[in-house]
Design a protein that fits this description.
107 residues; mainly alpha; binds zinc ion
Length: 107
C-alpha cells in the first residue's frame, strides 16, 4: 500500500548512495529551522528558500513518481537526518517511518 510516504523515498534510497545523502546533511539545520519558523517572510534567505521547498513538496503532483528534482532534494535532506538520528521519539517529519524504510538499505 502506498501511504503518506511515497515510492519516491524508496527510489531515493535505491539510487542515491548513502554517502551522497550524508553530504546533504549540511542542509538539515535549515530544514528544521524552516519547519519551526513562523514568519511568512523570514529575514533568513535559506529559511525562506527551504520553506518554498517544503510548500512545493506538499503540493507537488510529480513527487510520487520520483521525477521531480526539487522533491528529490527535500527527500534527500530528510534521509540525511534519518541516517544520523538516534532519537526513539523524534519529532522530525516522517522520521520514524523513514527509519524503518532505511534499515533495509543499510544492512
Ligand atoms: Zn525563518
Ligand atoms: Zn516536486
Ligand atoms: Zn529523527
Amino acid at each position: 500500500m502506498v501511504n503518506g510516504i511515497s515510492h519516491a523515498f524508496e527510489d531515493c534510497f535505491r539510487r542515491a548512495r548513502i554517502a551522497s545523502i550524508q553530504a546533504q546533511s549540511i542542509h538539515v539545520p535549515h530544514f528544521i529551522e524552516a519547519i519551526q519558523c513562523s514568519f511568512d517572510n523570514c529575514i533568513l534567505t535559506k529559511c525562506n528558500r527551504m520553506k518554498r521547498y517544503i510548500r512545493h513538496y506538499k503540493q507537488c503532483r510529480l513527487r510520487r513518481t520520483g521525477r521531480c528534482q526539487a522533491c528529490r532534494n527535500l527527500i534527500i535532506i530528510k534521509c540525511s537526518h534519518v541516517l544520523n538520528c538516534k532519537e526513539k521519539q523524534c519529532s522530525f517529519p516522517d522520521c520514524s517511518e523513514l527509519k524503518q524504510k532505511i534499515k533495509k538499505y543499510l544492512d
